[in-house]
Amino acid sequence: MELEKMPFDLGYDLDEALKREEICRDDFKALRNPPIEGAPTDMTDKQLACFLNACNKNIDQTRKVIKIYYAARRDAPELFNDTDPLSPKIRQCFENQDYFILPTTPAGYSVVYHRLNNPKASNYNFDEAVKTYFMLLDSCIYSEGPRPGLICLFDMSNVGLSHLLRVKISTVRKFFHYLQDGLPAKLKAIHVLNAVSFFDKVLYMIKPFMHAEILKMLFLYTSNANLDKFYEEWIPRECLPSDYGGHLKSVAELHKEHIKTFESLRPYYLAEERQRNGKCSLIEETNAKMKSLEID
Predict the structure, then answer these.
(1) Secondary structure in 3-state letters for the chain
(2) Digitized pLDDT (tens) for each residue of the chain, 296 residues in all
(3) Measuring CA to CA, which residue among 47, 56, 272, 235 is closest to residue 145?
(4) Of 6, 13, 162, 225, which residue is 20 to 30 A from 288 by alpha carbon distance?
């Protein structure tokens, strides 16, 4: 079977997730009828379960978030299309930045990690970096499915002022719109390790696009910060790379392993884009055809 024609679905165990997160299968019917405008007609149970859980099983809110999810992806092709992990632009991100998933925390939270491993700003393409980060989030949802929460862990140790010159405000807006309003996961916290001395300038750029509740989820740690509370309340040492006093492999080793995960998910990325970009029928297209038939 050709990669671009492989069927689309997530990889996690649906039955286990439904039981763990107490998700009712009957709610899938309520999400499919009536259809959601702008969403593919062939959304799978695994997809719907992630959205339901993210919205605390509220059907109306879930329908709203699904609509936002597809609109956000449709309106920002520069951040969501061309996600082939073998493409030169994505490979360039893999070479200069670290991306991987950490083990779930004792509280059951998923954790995604990101860091620049090359301090040269000339090697940093902001749009491509955001796209690859969204691919990381997708890989997490693909493998872990519905969870009680998601933690985003960043390390700013290689970020300089020159990187800020490459940041596009329009992309920052789209990033936070998707992360806050359209993500099929419960965002619990954003932890920033080795926060730079000029983080006030970073905050000046991003704060206008952050909801008040998201700002409350933001935790900053300087390079000499005591991480004992972080270990105790959020991510224990057994779930962290050795670079941060953890018991896992180094950041470099974990990133190298996750590149293989990205590559193994190539059929998924291609199929997801195919499903989303009109290769499968959309509700609005179906409605348009219905109206055309009525006119005829």
Answers:
(1) CCHHHCCCCCCCCHHHHHHHHCCCCHHHHHHHCCCCCCCECCCCHHHHHHHHHHCCCCHHHHHHHHHHHHHHHHHCHHHHCCCCCCCHHHHHHHHHEEEEEECCCCCCCEEEEEEECCCCHHHCCHHHHHHHHHHHHHHHHHHHCCCCCEEEEEECCCCCHHHHCCCCHHHHHHHHHHHHHHCCCCEEEEEEECCCCCHHHHHHHHHHHCCHHHHCCEEECCCCCCCHHHHHHCCCHHHCEHHHCCCECCHHHHHHHHHHHHHHCHHHHHHHHHHHHHHCCEHHHHHHHHHHHHHC
(2) 333 344 578 999 999 999 999 999 999 999 999 999 999 988 999 999 999 999 999 999 999 999 999 999 999 999 999 999 999 999 999 999 999 999 999 999 999 999 999 999 999 999 999 999 999 999 999 999 999 999 999 999 999 999 999 999 999 999 999 999 999 999 999 999 999 999 999 999 999 999 999 999 999 999 999 999 999 999 999 999 999 999 999 999 999 999 999 999 999 999 999 888 875 444 343 334 334 434 44
(3) 47
(4) 6
**Residue 261, token pair as written in the block:** 């995960």
